[in-house]
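Researcher: Let's run the pair from yesterday's discussion. Sequence first, then tokens, for each.
Model: Starting with the first of the pair.
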Amino acid sequence: MPPWPSCTGWTAPPSPPRSARSDPCSPRGFAIPGRPGLRIRTLDDLFAYADAEGVDIPLDGTEVQVRRPRAGRPGRQAFVSGKKKQNTIKTTTFSDHQGRTLFSGVVRPGRVHDRTAVLTEGIAEQFRLHPDVHAEVDSGYRCLAKEFPSQVSAPPKKPAQDAPDGNMRAWREARRRQSSARIVVEHTNAEFKQWHPLQRYTGRREDYEQTHLAVAGLVSDRAARRTTRRLTSTELSVARRLMEFGRCDYSEVSVYADLRSVAEVRRVAKELPEGWFRGQEAYGEFDGVPLEDQPALVLGVQGAGLPADPAAYEGRLPVECELLDLPVGSIEDVFTAAVGPNRGEVNWEALHWPDAPELGFRGETKHAEVTLLFNTSTRDLDEPADDHTVLVHVRSVSVDGRQMRDPYAHWLAKQVGLTVIGPGQRC
């Protein structure tokens, strides 16, 4: 009986008791992360689970070399793979965003193309029945992306050789993002190949499906025990798309946060022990006072050196926390998880915006930056907000009171599939 959505999520038939499994290689289904006792056994189960839980399911095919049929045997060419030029058997694997096996099957001879399997094994029909399920695929499944463009993402096609530089950059960035989302299922297939029978299968071809399902079920059991990683925030992903469009070898990132309570200072210090924390001081409070006699919190101290006495924070809030001029990718995820309800920012600088010849704009580097604001809508962090804001920086040129560079900012956002939604700010 297939699973069905319910008011509390979804349900599936219970696993048969161990005593009922007379064959140790009998298909056991695939473990579900965080749902002990429930298993996925069919494509119906998989798509029902993905639909009810809102899980994206990257999919990819893999093939294993098998024994060559005896000469003169009917159907000898059915297993010859057009890609490997060997006798193989193909399967299709589905995983979650963390590369944990959710389903592996759709076993077929190596000659059968992935596109054919999509149509004949019911994968396309499942996407039609579950319009809220999304997947990432490679170019072999481009037919799925054409039929379900709002559900399935395939690698973008390369622009013509004479395309503008901006279009080539946009294509490379879109290809990189799609590949990053899809690579997890490649890692899932690699886990199967760690088992010797699935590196090169020497048994009878008729028995391969049973062996594959048994091994894949064991791999899913092990993968389901992995701790679920926190998904990267949507805002950080959006900001990174802009940043990667202009990223250079010398690009850097800095982070900053205003911490308005002692509890928040201590919490963030645990998450960012290498950060520098500096408290406020009144105007002229330490005029003429030697540096060695000034409080460490006023001069600036790393997380491990913060005072333990709450009295030391009186008159020093909000405390500023910052890390400056770091390599891109070294701090963004940690800071985004640590900032919490506080106002703060991640700022990427030393970028390079490309030319936009169709708008008559030349590229620039001096003012090329991207800023992700947390819980505020202004670069000064003086206006609280319930959401986050991404800023793209360009040179400000005003003619007769009109900003002439605004179209350039809109063009930059468009190259990575984004839209400018607010007026410009002076930074």
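Model: Moving on to the second of the pair.
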Amino acid sequence: MGRALPRLRPPAPRPGRRPGRALLARAPVRPLHLPRARRRGRARRPRAPRRQRPRCRTGVLGAGCAARPRRQPRPRRRQRGRRLRPARARQPRAVSRLERQALAPRALGPFDYGRENYTRELWIAEGFTSYYDGLLVLRSGEISVKAHLQRLAESIGRLRDTPGRLVQSLEDSSFDAWIKLYRPQDDSPNASVSYYLKGSLVALLLDLWLRELRPSGSGLDGVLAELWQRGPGRLETRGPTTSNTYSYPGFTVEDLEQILGEQSGLGEVPGAIRALWSKPVELDFASLAQLGLRLSEKPVQPGLIDLGFTLQDRAGSPWVEFVRTDSPAERAGLASGDELLAARRLDGSWLRLRSARAARVWDHLQPGAPAELLISRRERVLTLPIAFAAARGAPQIERIGDADPAARARFEAWSGRRWSDP
């Protein structure tokens, strides 16, 4: 029989050096599956017996259960960006459902889901809602006065850049919602206007008109309160929801005109006010001065051009999405669906147009100076001469520093904030 080889021990590592991988591979492996106490040669301590907790029998508290305090419910934690309301502030389901569905145009209720429901009052239902979306947040103090005025100026700027405001009235926009607003085309901004956008600004003008005639009145707030009292406010809110939801037939434009005439003290609505929603007229915001506000345009950098069209990116190439009516781009022959390849001044070289660097190309062009656009249309390359117009400044609304005390008081009554609030 062969001799057993002696067991070799791995040599000790030199001082100041860590053992290598080969040395660690030959090192003896410690049995890690055993408890730590047994690996060290010590006996394992016995675990103390678990204390018996008293149990309740058949759901009735005994002596042991009564001695143990009951567990208190954990307080509700407030989540970020969300306020918890007490349970008593919640309204019954029938009342909340009635309030959401009662103030609606007459043509929209009861709903017929088998066909399209046409109405001319959407500018009231949706436009007034859009107006109070920002005004109520301002009155609650969750937004600054400066931020609200900035958003209001942005809405005025969007309406100014929509040529369809002078083509379609608010009543027609509400009636054609099924065929134009929800089915937009390339030329929709030139032929239509949103009753959300223009309706909210008409609500602002109506509010200012009422406050100018009756400074001590509540403006458009009183009109909506009266419209509610004559409609769902006088109905019975108890009982099944289905029997009360459509008890109020809905309002019409005539109902709104009647209440506007009563709240203004004139008895009827003047023709200039009725034209705000019945005709495609330009809105005049000069009445902002009665609140101590001034509408102006921000100064723009000299040399900036107004393109007159909007672009969309397709794989890095700029394509024309919409061309504004009565703009230099429309007069030059630019159309929706054209791909822009390059642009240049008449005394310069061609600059290739890409979506990432289009802004730098426009900086080389000057307003009023003749230029050329190289486009691709239906697999044909065309050159269009064009002379861009100067860019207009964005609208801005500011508080007049030397406003009289009466204007400041009307501003505080309208906004629910102090004149000095930021």
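Researcher: Give me one sentence on the second I can quote.
Model: Residues 93-297 form a domain with the Neutral Protease; domain 2 fold (CATH 1.10.390.10).
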